[in-house]
Structures are given as structure tokens and as C-alpha cells.
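Please check these two lines:
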Amino acid sequence: MTGKTMKTIHEYRGYVFSIEFSGEYPEWTVVYEDFDDIFTGGSTLEEAFKNGCGALDTHLESLQKMGEPLPKPRLRIQLVQV
């Protein structure tokens, strides 16, 4: 996949995130628009998805333990029939 860009969009627990192919380690990086402090990725798309979901679970759990409010998701995926 060298030289090609691939980006997939996902939703987990109401939060939208993207997984992008970078060609560098980690080859697949996860980006949550609602959280600047979640950093994860994986060697495969599947691994990045799993790690992205796990990182969000851990982050939200940490916010709850610290008594911080959970932010409302800013983005939503909307399916449109064409």
C-alpha cells in the first residue's frame, strides 16, 4: 500500500474515530476528533480498530474515576441512501 492513502471512519460508544494508513510504524493510526489525548494504532486495520476501542474504554473509565464529565460526541455518522 505504499504511496496510497486509506482512511476508514468508525463509531464506538457514540464517538466517531478514523483509522488512517501511514506506511510508518504503527502503520495504522487511530484519531478521535473528540479526544486529543488518545494515541493508538496497530500493524493491521483490525488491530488498530481493536486498540482504538480499548483506548477509548480506558480513557472514559479514567475520566469517570477522576470525577470528570464525559464529553458529548461532536461528530455523528449519518448513513444516506443514494
